Amino acid sequence: MELNQKEKATLLDIVKKTVAAKVNDKDTPKFTVDSEALKEKRGAFVTLKKRGHLRGCIGYIKAVKPLWETVQEMAVAAAFHDPRFPSLKPDEIRDLTFEVSVLSPLKRIKDINEIEVGKHGLYIVRGYNSGLLLPQVAVEHEWDRESFLKETCYKAGLPSQAWKDKETQIYIFSADYFGDTN
User: In angstroms, what CA-CA distances link 18 with 93, 102, 117, 120, 121?
Assistant: First the structure.
């Protein structure tokens, strides 16, 4: 399911207004959403970049809430709860760009040749470890398939070659991702 431009604009508006409110210690804004596509339960990630560099990225892999609610919740999580970064400060907001990635359902694969760099994101699981990288990450870093697998293993806290282990589960998904450029 691809979103239309109005739906994408609505999600970006939700992200921006929510982050702006929360960074200024205001209540989470209330939104009325008419689009059936935005009411559908979907997995999604929200990415914040400050002057082109990652500033926060968190999401739900699986569909647990309506898309617009997931995006609003993940906007707050990316701004204030990404363990890799300190909480966002009000003076940073003017330097941010925002991106939303709406995920397709996960598909487990047995053959890494099913992975199309630029089209698929990866989710790797072994034991209690798991890691996910969105499709656009491989493109941004100009990774080939094997590099993408190694980096996803690293993100999962696994050895770089863990993707070759029979115990490791590899999932692919696609994402409709869009954002602003401020």
Answer: 12, 18, 32, 29, 26
